[in-house]
Automatic annotation (TrEMBL), chains A, B, C, D:
GO terms for biological process: action potential. Residues 31-248 form the Ion transport domain. Keywords: Ion channel, Ion transport, Membrane, Potassium, Potassium channel, Potassium transport, Transmembrane, Transmembrane helix, Transport, Voltage-gated channel. It is a multi-pass membrane protein. This is Ion transport protein. InterPro entries: Ion_trans_dom, VG_K_chnl, Volt_channel_dom_sf. SUPFAM superfamilies: Voltage-gated potassium channels. Its main location: membrane. The chain crosses the membrane at residues 32-49, 69-85, 92-110, 158-179, 218-243. GO terms for molecular function: voltage-gated potassium channel activity. It is found in: Membrane. PANTHER family: POTASSIUM VOLTAGE-GATED CHANNEL PROTEIN SHAB, VOLTAGE-GATED POTASSIUM CHANNEL.
Amino acid sequence: MVQDQNRPDEKGTFREWLYITVFQSSTVAGKIFDIGLSVLILSNIILLMLESVPSISAKYEPAFQKFDVFFLVIFSGEYLLRLYCVRSAKKYAASFYGVIDLMAILPSYMEFLYPQWHVFMIVRCFRLLRIFRIFRMVRFLDESRILMLALIRGFRKILVFLFFVLLLAIFLGSLMYVVEFQKNSGFNTIPQSIYWAIVTITTVGYGDVAPVTATGKVIASFIMILGYAIIAVPTGILSASVIQEEKRNQGRRCPQCQVAGHDKEAIYCKNCGSKLSEQ
Amino acid sequence: MVQDQNRPDEKGTFREWLYITVFQSSTVAGKIFDIGLSVLILSNIILLMLESVPSISAKYEPAFQKFDVFFLVIFSGEYLLRLYCVRSAKKYAASFYGVIDLMAILPSYMEFLYPQWHVFMIVRCFRLLRIFRIFRMVRFLDESRILMLALIRGFRKILVFLFFVLLLAIFLGSLMYVVEFQKNSGFNTIPQSIYWAIVTITTVGYGDVAPVTATGKVIASFIMILGYAIIAVPTGILSASVIQEEKRNQGRRCPQCQVAGHDKEAIYCKNCGSKLSEQ
Amino acid sequence: MVQDQNRPDEKGTFREWLYITVFQSSTVAGKIFDIGLSVLILSNIILLMLESVPSISAKYEPAFQKFDVFFLVIFSGEYLLRLYCVRSAKKYAASFYGVIDLMAILPSYMEFLYPQWHVFMIVRCFRLLRIFRIFRMVRFLDESRILMLALIRGFRKILVFLFFVLLLAIFLGSLMYVVEFQKNSGFNTIPQSIYWAIVTITTVGYGDVAPVTATGKVIASFIMILGYAIIAVPTGILSASVIQEEKRNQGRRCPQCQVAGHDKEAIYCKNCGSKLSEQ
Amino acid sequence: MVQDQNRPDEKGTFREWLYITVFQSSTVAGKIFDIGLSVLILSNIILLMLESVPSISAKYEPAFQKFDVFFLVIFSGEYLLRLYCVRSAKKYAASFYGVIDLMAILPSYMEFLYPQWHVFMIVRCFRLLRIFRIFRMVRFLDESRILMLALIRGFRKILVFLFFVLLLAIFLGSLMYVVEFQKNSGFNTIPQSIYWAIVTITTVGYGDVAPVTATGKVIASFIMILGYAIIAVPTGILSASVIQEEKRNQGRRCPQCQVAGHDKEAIYCKNCGSKLSEQ
């Protein structure tokens, strides 16, 4: 974990206690901090959503402004806290979460100069990722780990597959353009036709654009059945990946971090180093 | 099974016979009772549906009212019967089915005070779950058991996945809001944009809201291909779960309750306790 | 095969040769007969489709009538031929294909009495099933056999699953009816709302009916994500079934009928009886 | 590889060096050539797309014409180069890529005679397939190879499945025609109804055609749930295929062409013949 490398040297100090509280969720204080922060982020997101509804924002404008200031203070304070308690502030500021935390408060400050920046506050929804920290407590970590591994294993295959789909969409879209563009305003440009092809292959099917000519409908039917069949490809790939991960993951669970798949003779958890129970 | 713990002590009495008839389907009387009840519930649901069609309800209003009274009497009687024949009426009333059975008759009584409660009668469709009791007879139990186990095993993974999807929808919806809200009334609020994002990622694609700007269409295409690819994730997870369940489920079948997966040396069914046939 | 039981006793006669030609595709004459018949059925179907297009039928009305008579004569002749060359005409007439063959010619005769029966001629498309006879020749039999077995194995599980989906649709549809029916004409009856729920859970999403209230959209989003997740269930079931079938199907292929999965020590094909090659 | 058979005899000449550069990507020059060509093709496709947008093409008409000439010269030169450096020009011209390369430049020449041929320039998007050459460098070859094998293994099964789906669509479409054609202009012909059935079974659901009668909606619901269930079939098939391929693919990787799955005792790569590393 990147944080541990960034843990302050001096042991037993307030700064180290702060670090453990803010960046980890192993202690009670840490758990409380994480849950409290998640609640704040969630309520902030919900407020931003409601604010975007004209009827509501018109009614409670002043309240919303107060809340914006409140959350700005809270999140700025949290950011400074994090900068303070890590060993190297630079390293944290450059880390993934560091950038997200900064992006979350930046728009509020920019807003004083450019009001239209207000809308970008929604980038805060990225902070919801922190909620995964809590999953650790409710034993979800293992599941998401397997999922991640399966996704990573299947990733390149799925990328090749998506490239194929895109190529197919470009060609079939262009074909439909040639067939329909004189009779159907929905296919009046090639990019538009490709957009339609993607809508169709992925079986989304808005219906805002639909073929009108007989030839177009025949081609469309072919595209649909094609999309219906090839959706099986990524599924097959991921099924294989997940099954392999499952196999790899049979084994003892760590009582501390719930990670499984330790070797039979392992004594300590390979993930968090805590003692494993006998089986 | 919760019912068995709730079985009256005294053996061979009418009350115990009633209990077996009403709560179990092992005896002929029990089978008849279950089938009859299912038929009544089904016909009640169908009646409620027809009643909601203005043209029909206008024509047969009196008949519908008679039927409402009829079903109210029947289901109330059944509820009292259940309360009577269990050992502890409180325990049954607090059980899952007990609550459903009460909810099924409550609206009819509330209706006398507040007519608008009439519509809530539809909660009775929950009672259709009782039909699963009948599956026991037609050997469907085993299949639904494996299904359930597979779902339970895959449940947490799927929950993590759904959380990811929701997070994705929130972010992509907000993004589309920023891109489209000035040109497209369909994206005039963030919740509305998130609704659109969910409609798109899940490949439902109503088309009541669709992007109009070029940028919006590019992002939409990206979202669709994404949704098309990630639908593979829950599928992969469940395929793995089902395959594992299948493996676990190879073995002898109980001639009584059809449950399989007994240990090689088992002599009695671990589910219903009846003697297993040799292999 | 049901036909073989229906094969005439006397060997080497014209009637037996006719039987082999009409009902089997092992001989050259049989292959020619099957292919010719399939071509006729296909062209008949295409004609019926074109006839349903007003602009075309208006132009070529007389030609269509001639073709109707032509195909009536052909198919009637074929039906009589089949009745003649089987051992028991009754048994054939009662068989699956016998009924389809009769249904295919019946509407044309009824048409003389009731012209509106004309439209039912389309039941002939059922006869396309005969085309599967030809797959035998092009080595598709084995694939469709595995597919069938996988479907049969997964059938009951999928039935349970579909029952769940239906139950879900009934409940969620009723819920949406309660939420939307005052503001949205698309949800003015419960059956209509259930129809919408099915359209949504299956991710078809026509968009002819869509929620308008905020509550309705939240519930709809939930339904979509649900449908998105549970589509994984039948897929997982069938993946497991197909994989098991594949395993079962490893083994020698019959050089004659391409059926695989013979026991190691088998000498003759268990399907067509021809000699198996050594491995 | 077809190209190698087409490699010129004389070694070490400029012509052979040219061949290796143009047709292979093992040398640095070859890599540069492939990447450069891919960039040119991509930019050409993007230009053709933009050109199809009336507003843009009106503004930059002269620039587009200049680019058309530029790409015509480039691609014609490349085609002549390929014709020159292969051993037998005829063999290359008849090969898959040879035909595509010709098709890519033909429309530009035809345009001088028939301007309306301009639109067919889009066939150039086929040339994007050359980009797969580059995957070789970034180790994607192996993934696409497994994918291909899985697709080929599952191909015939999927074909049988698609034939079933088509048959189903024809029958259900005709059924809906019989039910709806008098009340609903969307079902006024059988082909149109079949088009609707395909749109529904594949869960695309444009909504441009939707049932209006009660019977029609019931049948439609049935079709949707059916399509929802049978989408599992191709997925199951492909999952099985991919899993088998994965199993087959465990083994050593070739350091040169990244192909895996060599026998334990293999010394040279079975694909490109280069020495394998020990394990």
